Amino acid sequence: MNDDAVFRALADASRRQLLDRLYEQNGQTLGELCQGLEMTRQAVTKHLVILEEANLVSVQRQGREKLHFINPVPINHIAERWINKFERRQLSALSALKKVLEGDGGQ
Amino acid sequence: MNDDAVFRALADASRRQLLDRLYEQNGQTLGELCQGLEMTRQAVTKHLVILEEANLVSVQRQGREKLHFINPVPINHIAERWINKFERRQLSALSALKKVLEGDGGQ
DNA sequence: TTGACATGCAACCAAATAGTTGCCTATAAG
DNA sequence: CTTATAGGCAACTATTTGGTTGCATGTCAA
Which residues form the domain of A75? Predict the structure, then answer.
């Protein structure tokens, strides 16, 4: 699994938007994903290819349509291997901050 | 807080490496961060500027040296607002894909 | 079979990106 | 003051990226 491809894929707002749309409704066709976007179909295709190569989207042909499904595994992967590491440090910082803000406050 | 800047900043392997190094040892100078990298100092500077603009690194001048500190808040932010959302979705997405792959599938 | 619809492929283009080199400024030390 | 050190700035370059247009292919429906 290639972390770099995932990070690069997530770097573009259009691609994150596509993931958002698939999150709203999974299994959409290319045509459906294009609707309402300020982009040509071909541009959307390119974005989807990048998402596929990063394994963030998997595809299933059905007749002349191509259905797109979100795959959360790589996101989970970088979350576990990368993000949590930095969060761990913050948790202590956050709880310290909370303590100050709340005067003391347990929990 | 600009999510896009954070995602873009994280998209480059060299910048993630710089964050890793700051994670190992916080508060390093530019010179220290350059050591052992296959890059000129100026290239590193550019990466650090991008990390600063994404608020992932904060800087403190000390005499003629510039100390760099990691700031985990933006990472936490995208983790909470973005990553967790997809992690939650994982089970239902997988089962939806299965349905299609298996031709019908109950549930 | 004919036409309409859904997608694929390739060439091209402009802008952004990652990197370089060369020179300048500021601070510390001899 | 002079010199070495730490970093800043700007111009330039090659490559990547995000997007376009034009045409081709494959599939469904009449």
Answer: 3-101
Instruction: Give the residue carrying structure tokens 């964050």.
Output: B19
Judged by CB atoms closer than 8 Å, whether chains meet at B23 and A89 is answered as: yes
Per-residue pLDDT of B30-81, as tens digits, reads: 999 999 999 999 999 999 999 999 999 999 999 999 999 999 899 988 888 8
| Total number of domains constituting chain B | 1
Q: With CB atoms and an 8 Å threshold, state whether B89 touches A70.
A: yes
A76 lies within 8 A of chain B by CB: yes
10 Å Cβ neighbour count for A58?
A: 16
Does B106 map to a domain? no
Report the range of poorest mean pLDDT among A34-38, A39-43, B27-31, B97-101: B97-101
Task: Supply the pLDDT for residue A90.
Answer: 55
